[in-house]
Amino acid sequence: MRLVIQRVSSATVKLEDKLVGSINSGLLVLLGIENGDDLTDVIWLVNKILNLRIFNDSSGVMNLSLKQVAGELMVISQFTLMASTKKGNRPSYIRAAKHEIAIPLYEQFVAMAEGGLGKQVAKGVFGAEMKVSLVNDGPLTLVINSKKRE
């Protein structure tokens, strides 16, 4: 799995001009699922994002986690994160997991995050063409790959 994590002061996701999710201060996570991903990837990544110390403490030092600041979380599925641009100019998405694998892992990811945070996680609609808006706070953006554990 590959994640793009953005610390945000706000984020929204719309489907056909209808608001389907929004958060205030917290994290927007774009989640790409590839062939070979499984529950161990979900567990590792959820634990990582809930406990990353990327929020400022009272001294202005990034020392607090999403859980510690009671921040909000939005998770958006994004198969394009699995793109390969190695050959030619047209990205290949062959590494992206098919729906029958990706949807259950996405749902497990959201459910585990909700359990860890103790509150609902905002999300988009799996596989839909959505409009995501955000105000990146920092800006702070991280990319995490569960296979490399980094």
What do you see in this structure?
This protein is α/β, with parallel strands linked by helices. The chain has a single domain (2-145), classed as D-tyrosyl-tRNA(Tyr) deacylase (D-tyrosyl-trna(Tyr) Deacylase, Chain: A). The protein is 21% helix and 37% strand. It has helices at 39-51, 99-117, and strands spanning 2-15, 18-23, 26-32, 55-56, 62-64, 72-77, 122-123, 131-145. The strands form 2 sheets. Strands 1, 2, 3, 6, 7 and 8 form a 6-stranded mixed sheet that branches. Strand 6, helix 2 and strand 7 (122-123) form a beta-alpha-beta unit. Helix 1 (39-51) runs parallel beside helix 2 (99-117). The longest helix has 19 residues, at 99-117. The model has no long low-confidence stretch (mean pLDDT 95).
Topology of this structure?
Blueprint lengths: L1 E14 L2 E6 L2 E7 L6 H13 L3 E2 L5 E3 L7 E6 L21 H19 L4 E2 L7 E15 L5
Helix pairs in contact: 1-2
Describe the structure concisely for a colleague.
The protein is α/β, with parallel strands linked by helices. The protein has helices spanning 39-51, 99-117, and strands spanning 2-15, 18-23, 26-32, 55-56, 62-64, 72-77, 122-123, 131-145. The mean pLDDT is 95.
Helix content: 10-25%
Number of domains: 1
What fold name goes in the CATH topology slot?
Answer: D-tyrosyl-trna(Tyr) Deacylase, Chain: A
Provide the CATH top-level class.
Alpha Beta
CATH homolog superfamily: D-tyrosyl-tRNA(Tyr) deacylase
Average residue pLDDT: 95
Into which percentage range does the β-strand content fall?
35-45%
Helix and strand composition category: alpha/beta
What is the total tally of β strands?
8
Tell me the overall shape.
globular
